[in-house]
Amino acid sequence: MNTAQTSEGQCEFDDVQVYLPCIFSCGVPQDSVLGLLLFIMYTIPLSTLISFLSLNHLLCADDTELLFSFHPPDFDLSITHLQNALQRISSSMTANLLTLDTSKTISAHRTQ
């Protein structure tokens, strides 16, 4: 039998995973107004930059969608603009301790 000493007391276990209450010295309590304030603090600079780059966008808890439309004759110029915008967005996110996960970055297009 194994014994573990915790701040909550002593637990004994034998090949069983035991979950104990954790006391954190930092973090945001769930359903706290502080979580909303932190979200706004991190996303307002990002939202401002995206708008400055002439892109429409939607910001959700862990997802950002960029919406960009262009006419087929402007394809090359538009793609260059979008690539430059994504580079600036990525740099801004890094500077604000956010991460652009390129493995989850996708593009979709629609034609009429």
Counting helices, strands and paired strands, the structural category is alpha+beta
**What Rg, in angstroms, do the CA atoms define?**
22 Å
Order of helices and strands: EEHEEH
Percentage of β-strand residues? 15-25%
**Percent range for helical residues?**
25-40%
Low-confidence stretches: 1-13
Q: How many domain regions?
A: 1
Number of helices: 2
- DSSP summary, beta strand count: 4
The largest β sheet comes out as: 2 strands, antiparallel
Distance between the termini: 69 Å
Give me the oligomer status: single chain
Overall geometry comes to elongated
Mean pLDDT: 76
Task: Give a short overview.
The protein has about 110 residues and is α+β, with helices and mostly antiparallel strands. It contains 2 helices and 4 strands, in the order E-E-H-E-E-H.
Give a description of the structure.
With 112 residues, this protein is of the alpha+beta class. It has one domain. It has 2 helices and 4 strands. It has helices at residues 33-52, 75-95; strands at residues 2-6, 9-13, 56-59, 64-67. A two-stranded antiparallel ribbon has the order 1-2. A two-stranded antiparallel ribbon has the order 3-4. Helix 1 packs antiparallel against helix 2. It is elongated and about 60 Å long. The termini are far apart. Residues 1-13 have low confidence and may be disordered.
